[in-house]
Protein: Serine hydrolase domain-containing protein
Amino acid sequence: MRWILTAVLLLLAASPATAAEPGALTAAAIDALVVKHREATGLPGVAVVVTKGTEVVHAAGYGHSPDGRPITDRTPMAVASVSKSFTALAVVQLAEAGWVRLDAPVREFLPEFTMADPRSAGITVRQLLNQTSGMSDSTYAATSGPQAATLGEAVAMLKPATLAAAPGTAWSYHNPNYVVAARLVEVVSGKPFATYLRDHVFAPLRMNDSTTADTDRDLPPSARGHLMPLGFPLAVPEPTSFGNGSGGVLSTARDMAAWLIAQNYGGGAVVSPAGLAELRTPTPVSGSYALGWSLDTTASGSPVIEHAGDLFTSTAYQAVLPSSGYGIAVMANTGTVYGDASTLARTVIAAAEGQATPGEPSRTGLVVTDAVMLALAVFVVAFSARGVRRAVRSPVRRGPWRTGLSLAVLVAPLMLCLTAHHVVSYLYRGRDVGWTHLFYFYPVFMVLLCAMAIGGVTVALARLVFRERSTAPGQGLEISRTAA
Structure:
């Protein structure tokens, strides 16, 4: 069935869509959907664009950026991993020009790409783009480890890494695949990656406000985002990271309209219909993941070509519906844990297909959970202070087993706190997660966990210190064997 779906998608993508749309999606209808979503979630700001055929149905911004400025259709926002579609396109352009062969080893065009694992010499360009290179978060900590400043540095940092699987035998979503691909574009073209995208993608499509950034420090205020503890937007900086090639593109609703139209009309001015088909062709190993795009179906069963993007403080989503000619892109300035871009986009897609839109997401449950955890954190602080006072006033002398058990219970929250990122990594199917990133995923929970860890250690130290003082000669402290 996957190959039948792929064939249908390629045929539809190669020529303008002519199918009648079941829903009458208008600018006013899109506005209403966005307003409802923002009212239900408190989403601070979002940019939305919908195209159909060669026309822009609607491109607009709503709300405000973290610096308080209104978001418009020309406000640059982070598209996160949607950037992979741009990087893959750049590589396919080079392949069409005869400078790169997709099924040749990467090292043939990028000799600096070396790894500790000898199998890496066989990684092909295509395997980078469809995420079957064998590189994985499980063998290289791209997110939590040291961060590069340039694409060259990022590729050099891969030298001590190993592979989790032989190239071409397993699929694993791993951002360094696209970092290497972007560096390949730089070396083969002789241009910085940002310059190449400007000259060969953005300029031909008249995406005049689009660019690409290397690190979090390069993000303009409009491309930063928020967390939502207790349901209130809190502007926070993106964690230190390097994202060019895999997640560094900054774009606007107006510019993304041009990008979506090109995707629905044979590649427009940037790639041939054959190249566009190449970008949308997965392999049996990669499953539904092609080259910077994923193949799926909508809730109504129509084929959709899509890619989501997640930063810690913002999200993005793009979709092309070949059967109806619609294109949708959403950039939201809340973090990955809230999923606003994908949720809102799927609501718009349902409306475009004339389907009943899903109910508006509610943050009530999250707000209540945050409130409960914050109240628990306050209780933990008060209880810990009481424990310290009791240790000072009535030190207890226990046997070694009871003392050890008591201290173990008090120190357990610290151990959980220090290892929580490994638990989250396991829940996220092995994706690399750093300890500080947990404050972006679960800010109030981490406040509670840290309060428990600090409180437990403080009480444990107080018990040890004042127990020793109470048993030291000449201290004159009365030991109470019945104090808890």
User: Anything to note?
Assistant: The chain has 15 helices and eleven strands. Residues 1-22, 474-484 have pLDDT under 50 and may be disordered.
